Amino acid sequence: MNLLDGKRCADSLIADIAKQVSxxxxxxxxxxxxxxxxxxxxxxxxxxxxxxxxxxTLSGFESNLIRLPETVTEKExxxxxxxxxxxxxxxxxIVQLPLPKQINAQRVINAIAxxxxxxxxxxxxxxxxxxxxxxxxxxxxxxxxxxxxxYQVPVAGKHCVVIGRSNIVGKPISIMLSNDFDIGNATxxxxxxxxxxxxLLEETRRADIVIVxxxxxxxxxxxxxxxxxxLIDVGINRLENGKIVGDVDFPAVAPKCEWITPVPGxxxxxxxxxxxxxxxxAYQNNFELA
Length: 290
Ligand SMILES: Nc1nc2c(c(=O)[nH]1)N[C@@H](CN(C=O)c1ccc(C(=O)N[C@@H](CCC(=O)O)C(=O)O)cc1)CN2
Fold this sequence. Notes:
Pfam families: THF_DHG_CYH, THF_DHG_CYH_C. InterPro entries: Aminoacid_DH-like_N_sf, NAD(P)-bd_dom_sf, THF_DH/CycHdrlase, THF_DH/CycHdrlase_cat_dom, THF_DH/CycHdrlase_CS, THF_DH/CycHdrlase_NAD-bd_dom. This protein has about 290 residues and is α/β, with parallel strands linked by helices. It folds into 2 domains: about 30-115, 3-Layer(aba) Sandwich (Rossmann fold), CATH 3.40.50.10860; about 140-270, NAD(P)-binding Rossmann-like Domain (Rossmann fold), CATH 3.40.50. Helix content is about 40%, strand content about 15%. The protein is built from 10 helices and 11 strands. The strands form 3 sheets. Strands 1-11-8-7-5-6 form a 6-stranded parallel sheet, sandwiched between helices. The protein has a 3-stranded parallel sheet with strand order 3-2-4, with helices on both faces. Strands 9-10 form a two-stranded antiparallel ribbon. Helix 2 links the parallel strand 2 and strand 3. The structure holds the ligand Nc1nc2c(c(=O)[nH]1)N[C@@H](CN(C=O)c1ccc(C(=O)N[C@@H](CCC(=O)O)C(=O)O)cc1)CN2. The ligand Nc1nc2c(c(=O)[nH]1)N[C@@H](CN(C=O)c1ccc(C(=O)N[C@@H](CCC(=O)O)C(=O)O)cc1)CN2 binds near residues 47 and 94.
């Protein structure tokens, strides 16, 4: 069993980004700038946003965090997005998800200027990504690709099963791994929590790579996978005792795996690193450097 260490990979990517930024700054350009919008006080979101702001500093970026109250209206949030879109000093913006019930998240995402949409959630970026064109790619999915690439895990020609069909993880990773560029060229089956159990097992038991993003602790058990599988655990579940675990029963399944991501320290770290890659791309696009 080998660990796909997200911290090690993310640290290496961030060091590389910081070098590129310092070359741009030495040449007289301003630093890349990310704006983060956080609505309310969702505890995990607070921690993710803190990690994004800290990683901006490590990457040599400027960042600013705009906090809005839980009760903010959709209209007020859309107005703020318009202001950020028009602000030339911001290269990229993210609105931390989830948003409170009164706000339609997709309407907010649709209002972000595609050239500042470093989350890659806007339909224009999602569409370009699906077509294999240059685009901001959803950070978790992109981070998984970067992690597989870093550890030289073979993907082309492999059978990959994704469990979970969310717009931010399951759908984009299934498209990216099946595309014929970068790290793709896998044969991908997209399953989800409503896939009949028998069918799910039929798929996962013959998969070379399983990616799980369902938000259920211990969902993947040893009987579901074959020996030598590569297992990517996207789940982040907080147990009552304060422990964070993924969607995989790690102690039981790890001995069967050739490669496996830990939680914490796996995909989560890569999400933040991939967001930095997207921000650098937004900046380089702005200055026509790429
Ligand atoms: N606007 C967005 N909102 C959300 C996204 C996103 O990509 N864009 N993804 C998730 C949350 N997320 C990033 O925002 C995220 C999740 C997890 C981690 C992370 O580093 N996890 C650590 C453990 C976390 C902890 O200790 O609390 C790990 O796995 O090691 C970073 C970012 C939903 N919202």
